Amino acid sequence: MMKKGLMIYLFIMFVFAAHSVAQEVSTGWLTGQIMIKDGGPMSRGMVVFFDAASGPAPDPDRFVRIPDQITDLDEEGKFRILLPAGKYYMGAIKRMSGEPVGPPLDNDYFLIKRDKDGNAVAYNIEKDKEQSTGVVAEAEPFKRKMTEGASGISGIIVDMAGDPVERAIVFAYINDTMTGLPPFASYRTGPDGKYIITMDKGGIYYLRVRDVYGGGPPAEGSVMGGYGEDKPAPVSVKTGEITQDIKIKVVRHFERGPQSQKAAEQGPDKSIKQDMKQKMKEEIEKKK
User: Fold this and answer.
1) Partner of 178 for a Cys bridge, out of 167, 173, 243, 278, CB 3.0 to 4.6 A?
2) What is d(CA 211, CA 191) in angstroms, rounded to the nearest whole number?
């Protein structure tokens, strides 16, 4: 009888502890409105957030960083998003190029929120608090350029027959497990299959290739691959230099099971948004 009572007591304490932990999840709200410079609201665009703890401040003239969180803007360019506690850099984009996801292309409306000195602003999200960015009227047509002295990797992507692969994307990770969101990404390859991916600094990187910016199961005919024959191979980059002639072989996925069918129907735009939501859920779980 005493043993049974002890077990009930421990069970009650476990439920209470689990409930207490759930109450301690640290999240906060951020609201705001994005406007086109000298224009109207950036309606139906997207606002993106970069976790300051996960990587450098975004600098599209030097490298492409994958955002940690995204949400849509409404007709008035307004947004409201729940974020895990921490510091975040903010950007926004409205596609004019026709490309559904990925880094900004020429003539897309784009911004990174910066202070008067040109530094990316970090918003501090605190537990159970709501704050506003106010009206940010800084979005302008984007013009892609490459800063001199960039750090990165260049090469070509080919299929198993040795032919160049068009519209492929290279992702760079800082560890060989290559899990989670990659810190850096390239633009899509052209007909010649050539790519260049840049980072904020030198180091050891591991490369993966896909033809969508989102994750999830591959759709039929999608491209997948990575640098390294039997296992991921490191690529060394020196700060201020481009490591050249890194050839990556890829294969096309032709299996069409239920997951592949679902991925094809969703498309890359929904896929990447689901990845962001899943990552946010995982971040919240970590902080319980």
Assistant:
1) 173
2) 14
Q: Do the beta carbons of residue 215 and residue 124 sit within 8 Å?
A: no
Instruction: Report whether 46 contacts 77 (CB < 8 A).
Output: no
Angular region, 227: left φ>0, alpha ψ -120 to 50, beta rest:
beta
Q: Kindly state the average pLDDT of the residues 180-208.
A: 95
Range 140-157 burial, b when 16+ CB lie within 10 A, else e: eebeeeeeeebbbbbbbb
Question: From CA 59, how far away is CA 36, in angstroms rounded?
Answer: 19
- Residues 243-257 have pLDDT tens digits of 999 999 999 877 554
- Smallest CA-to-CA distance from 283 within 86, 35, 23 is with 86
Q: 285: pLDDT confidence band, cut at 50, 70 and 90? A: low
As a whole-number percent, the residues of the chain with pLDDT over 90 amount to 65
Give residue 122's Cα distance to chain centre.
17
CATH 3.30.70.920 fits 27-145, yes or no: no
Would you tell me which CATH number, out of the four given (3.40.190.10, 2.60.40.1120, 3.40.50.720, 3.40.30.10), belongs to the domain 151-253?
A: 2.60.40.1120
pTM of this structure: 0.76
- The runs of H, that is alpha helices, within 39-139 are none
* 109-147: pLDDT as tens digits: 999 999 999 999 999 999 999 999 999 999 999 998 877
| 3-state DSSP assignment of residue 266 | helix
Per-domain residue ranges of the chain: 27-145, 151-253
Distance of alpha carbon 286 from alpha carbon 227, whole angstroms? 31
